[in-house]
């Protein structure tokens, strides 16, 4: 079963299962893993395939801080400009009533893509993600450069580190979009965007392109520096040796490829349900100015999107 609701739209519920795709060239509700090695589309006629989800590795704070300190050292010696380090947090309460949590997410996050699916072939996931990757509007396409995080309502300005982290994301996306012939790219002023327990820095980018370009753009645009790092290839190679858990669908692509209503989001603020237990996936962007303790706190704040509703 699959339940989802885009911002401003009605809830949609479907029976069936996900089936694997070779490329994102079909219409329907899709989901991919972090590096787009695995791509799936929802099918109401799919044959169930048994699947037992492994328990994800949950790093403790001491080990996280040790790895975080090494990341900062590597960044300061010039390894990369940014690395997005992630972790998994096991919810204290169990068993989880997934249907109730989904209803609470719907009410709490009207401006997010809220979803819940239980699939026999890839498991059960739930989330409320605010970050648009690519969305078709009547006159153009739009995306979000969303990075830099502070606690919602926190009485402080964003730091240099947070502004720099956001600028890296905007510059990467802008560079990709300017390669589209006739894009007529427009970039909004910098603003703040609050979603639940956290506030981010935000710029919107709008452009023109034929729909045939969409699959290729998704391939080159994602993962952005907001979820991987910069340079992209260096960051992904580094993360492959650093992170001790599989990200699964966290920081992957999720949304609809329906003709004329394309809406793709980055799969943030989500969790995996295994045997009645919720495992929340969390991450933060590291730059040379990062403070490991503050990065841990940022992931704790992000976890509240799901965990404060239990």
Give me a quick take on this structure.
This protein has helices spanning 61-76, 98-108, 160-177, 214-221, 232-242, 292-307, and strands at 2-5, 12-14, 17-21, 29-32, 39-43, 82-90, 113-119, 123-129, 132-136, 141-151, 186-187, 191-195, 198-207, 229-230, 253-256, 263-266, 270-274, 277-286.
Explain this structure to me?
The protein is of the alpha+beta class and 310 residues long. It has a single domain, classed as Anthranilate synthase (4-Layer Sandwich). Helices cover 26% and strands 33% of the residues. Strands 3, 4, 5, 9, 10, 11, 12, 13, 15 and 16 form a ten-stranded antiparallel β-sheet that branches. The radius of gyration is 18 Å and the shape is globular. The mean pLDDT is 96.
Gap between N and C termini, in Å?
21 Å
* Percentage beta strand: 25-35%
The CATH H-level homologous superfamily: Anthranilate synthase
What's the number of helices? 6
Series of H and E elements: EEEEEHEHEEEEHEEEHEHEEEEH
- Apparent shape: globular
Percent of residues in helical segments? 25-40%
- Uncertain segments are none
Q: Let me know the average pLDDT.
A: 96
| CATH fold group | Anthranilate synthase
| CATH architecture name | 4-Layer Sandwich
How many structural domains? 1
Major beta sheet summary: 10 strands, antiparallel
How many beta strands in the DSSP annotation? Answer: 18
SSE-based structural type: alpha+beta
- Work out the radius of gyration: 18 Å
Under CATH at level 1, the class stands as Alpha Beta
């Amino acid at each position: 079963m699959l339940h989802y609701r885009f911002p401003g739209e009605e809830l949609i519920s479907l029976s069936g299962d996900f089936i694997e795709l070779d490329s994102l060239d079909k219409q329907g509700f899709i989901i991919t893993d972090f590096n787009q090695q695995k791509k799936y589309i929802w099918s109401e006629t799919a044959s169930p395939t048994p699947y037992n989800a492994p328990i994800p590795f949950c790093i403790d704070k001491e080990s996280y801080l040790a790895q975080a300190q090494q990341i900062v050292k590597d960044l300061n010696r010039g390894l990369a400009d940014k690395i997005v380090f992630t972790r998994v947090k096991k919810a204290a309460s169990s068993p989880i009533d997934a249907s109730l949590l989904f209803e609470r997410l719907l009410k709490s996050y009207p401006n997010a893509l809220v979803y819940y699916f239980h699939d026999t072939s890839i498991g059960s996931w739930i989330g409320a993600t605010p970050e648009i990757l690519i969305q078709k509007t009547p006159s153009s396409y739009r995306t979000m450069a969303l990075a830099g995080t502070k606690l919602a309502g926190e009485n402080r300005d964003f730091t240099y580190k947070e502004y720099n982290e956001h600028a890296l994301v905007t510059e990467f996306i802008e560079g990709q979009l300017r390669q589209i012939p006739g894009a007529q790219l427009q970039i909004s002023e910098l603003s703040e965007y609050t979603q639940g327990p956290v506030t981010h820095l935000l710029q919107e980018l709008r452009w023109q392109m034929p729909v045939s370009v969409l699959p290729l753009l998704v391939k080159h645009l994602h993962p952005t520096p907001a979820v991987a790092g910069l340079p992209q290839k260096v960051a992904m190679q580094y993360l492959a040796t650093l992170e001790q858990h599989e990200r699964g669908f966290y920081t992957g692509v999720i949304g609809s490829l329906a003709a004329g209503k394309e809406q793709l989001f980055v799969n943030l603020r989500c969790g995996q349900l295994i045997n009645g237990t919720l495992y929340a996936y969390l991450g933060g962007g590291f730059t040379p100015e990062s403070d490991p303790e503050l990065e841990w706190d940022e992931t704790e704040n992000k976890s509240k999107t799901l965990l404060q509703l239990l």
